[in-house]
Write a structure and sequence with these properties.
Blueprint (H helix, E strand, L loop, with lengths): L5 E4 L18 H9 L3 E4 L9 H13 L7 E5 L4 H9 L6 E5 L4
Parallel strand pairs: 1-2, 3-4
Length: about 100
């Protein structure tokens, strides 16, 4: 990381059910680098921005329909794979949304 950079922590679903502190602890050598390079590390909670949801949804929709936003998602095929997909998602095994495709209609 570059000097004076900023790290936003989000998407920590894989750690929700673990008995570890949040944000996760860092090894001493990483702590030293963060201090030495003046890197900030801050958590992001979407609920802190509820007043901006409507504006954000409108902007994201515009970018999506203008093909300026690419959606990455993980899709499991078939309802019989819903359980495996859910477990994988809870372990952080997905990219973006975890979907289960049950029909091609």
């Amino acid at each position: 990381m570059k000097k004076d950079s900023h790290v936003i922590l989000c998407g920590q679903i894989a750690t929700y059910n673990k008995d570890i502190p949040y944000p996760p602890p860092l090894p001493d050598e990483i702590k030293h680098l963060i201090k030495e390079r003046n890197i900030t590390r801050e958590r992001f909670l979407v609920l802190d921005y509820q007043d901006k949801f409507e504006e954000a949804v409108n902007q994201l929709a515009k970018w999506y329909f203008d093909d300026k936003l690419k959606v990455r998602e993980t899709t499991a095929e078939g309802l019989e794979n819903a359980g495996k997909a859910f477990c994988s998602m809870m372990r952080g095994g997905n990219i973006g949304k975890q979907l289960v495709k049950v029909s091609s209609i």
